[in-house]
Amino acid sequence: MTGPGVPPTPPRLLPDAVHEAVGPGSALLRLVTTHTRQSLLDGAWWPRTREVERELPPLVTALAAHLGPITRVGLDTSAWNGIPPRLVIDGRVVHLDSFAVGDDTVLITRGDSDHFALMVVPPGTAPEAARAAMARAVDADNVTQAAEILLAAFPGPAGTPGTAPDEEKGKGPNESGAPS
Asked: Can you tell me the distance from the alpha carbon of 127 to that of 180, in angstroms, rounded to the nearest whole number?
């Protein structure tokens, strides 16, 4: 609320130095460390699985803590299992849009039209490759598309994601829940 003597509420921006697990034993989230939002990507997300109803709620909760209420999420149909039209997350309805775009990103909408693009690192990616891709995605000077970053980060045949050694399989990107 603004009026005489009441300063306007500043817009909520991406926080500085966010690099945290979305929850213990869950996905890793990194956001850019600049408020200018000049790069192609606003952050990177490394989910454990391709199950929307398992992975999306902790992401939306983490983002809402920094950005305010999230109203929509756009997902690539071919990359996720069973995208429902909406989810109730933290008591709020979040509408899900699905597109067959194959662009390795998830689009987050805050309010009516403020969009954030997060690169999605495929589940099962080797930790070193995932961290390298995420670091590049959140570089303030990044001008590279998500697909190109991921292709460069995965030295396997035809750019397929690296996989963790057998003892790491099934643990997910950050089993300890601590930032890496």
From this structure: 10
What tokens were used for 98?
């699905």
DSSP symbol at 77: G
Q: What is the dihedral of CA 16, 21, 22, 27, to 10 degrees?
A: 120
Q: Is the entire prediction scored with pTM above 0.90?
A: no
pLDDT in tens, 117-146: 899 999 988 888 888 898 888 887 778 888
| H or E stretch covering 128 | helix 127-137
H/E segment holding residue 71: strand 70-76
Compute the Cα dihedral for 89, 92, 98, 101 and give only its sign: negative
Cβ proximity of 59 and 161 under 8 Å: no
Sign of CA dihedral 34, 36, 41, 47: positive
Helix (H, G, I), strand (E, B) or coil at 69: coil
Asked if residue 47 lies in contact with residue 123, where contact means CB atoms within 8 angstroms, the answer is: yes
Question: pLDDT, tens digit, for every residue of 15-67?
Answer: 444 445 555 445 577 776 555 666 678 888 999 999 999 999 999 998 898 88
